[in-house]
Hints:
9 helices; globular; binds nicotinamide-adenine-dinucleotide
Amino acid sequence: MSKQSTQQTAIVTGAGGDIGRAICIELAKDGFAVLALDIAKAPNDETIRLVHEAGGTGEALICDILDANDRAKMVEAGRELGAISLLVNNVGAITAESLQQATVENFEQDFKINQLGAFACFKAIEKDLIENKGVLTNIASVNGLGVFGHPGYSAAKASLLHFTRLVAVEYGKFGIRANAIAPGTVRTQAWDERAKKNPQVFEDAKRWYPLQRVADPVDIAKVVSFISSPAAAAISGVCLPVDCGLTAGQAELAGTFAQSEDY
Ligand SMILES: NC(=O)c1ccc[n+]([C@@H]2O[C@H](COP(=O)([O-])OP(=O)(O)OC[C@H]3O[C@@H](n4cnc5c(N)ncnc54)[C@H](O)[C@@H]3O)[C@@H](O)[C@H]2O)c1
């Protein structure tokens, strides 16, 4: 380590997006020094400005998680901030909407960004996490649990869930915990293109959620904070849906099956 410090560093990828930003702010409030990583500079700088505004400490770093040199800079910057003890793999992106639209090229792209990038970031800081008995928190999706469109993204998120279990089982002896969070629909800028096609997209989606709402980025951030904290010290290898009840079932369908208006 380049710096002797008791400060704990949390590395958050995709920190310029709405969910990544909310996670950085929440972790900073928890006392972590936050290393915010994103390929895009301006939104990531804004994240760190908000971290500082919330009274936290942290730095923004431009980093393409798929680039080995950038990952080496990530490790260096993380150690400068403190002892790297948390990695939140939050980068995610989608390509083809359906298997009929999917190609070998965009399927590979989906796997690189949603799965390989997370694995590569973990490998880059593996020794730090062992040394610091750290935590890995992967942001997956309900798309990794069932079919909700975007096949390449979904298959990669399912793989990310299994990667989470692989880490939990093999690295548990080092004191490392690994968990995943599977959000349902979250109101973020990632939906902008779809909202242009259908401004009612969130209203339409609500129909399928038992809580009759979609999540906000802070809903995800609060669960990341919990599952990455000592309060969750005995939880490892799980996938926690943060989906307003989506994966429990659909009230409308239950009503049809039961022929009851109670649903
Ligand atoms: N928004 C939702 O409804 C939803 C639902 C389920 C899961 N998720 C997951 O939550 C996470 C965050 O979602 P979001 O809606 O905030 O997404 P977003 O697209 O708004 O943010 C993702 C961020 O990742 C950055 N990024 C992309 N490629 C990168 C790379 N190679 N290196 C570094 N940074 C890179 C982007 O610049 C962007 O700032 C993703 O993993 C996503 O799959 C989101």
